[in-house]
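Everyone, study these two lines:
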Amino acid sequence: MRILGLDYGDQRIGVAICDELGMAARGIATLVRKNRDADLAAIAGFVERFGVEKIVIGYPLRLDGSEGIQCDKVNRFARRLEARLSMPIIRRDETFSTKEAEELLRETGVRKEKRRAIVDRLAACIILQGYLDALPHEEENKWTTP
């Protein structure tokens, strides 16, 4: 099953995709936000291109676990995606995903100018990978003894 991961922001949307087995996520794009229709069309293009069956979108909970203004924005966008694409949109806590992405890029020596261009894509990858890691995998469970 192919799953698309999104890191939704006011200016950019990071996009990631998983492999066919649902084991590993990789970043594929950073969309610069234009308008609602253009953003939805771009994501619909990824869904069609990769045969996506489900989307995981980062859900920016506050540190205390409560929802804020950004959650409202994500919810509105997710509802529009659901209406347009007729597929499940899963909200996944994205607390610290962008900070983690920035730190990874800094540690690997990526220059600040280049980090800005790829941090959202990497954050989408972190969100999606976290979701994938939380799923039970049938192949792994097949080899465990009761």
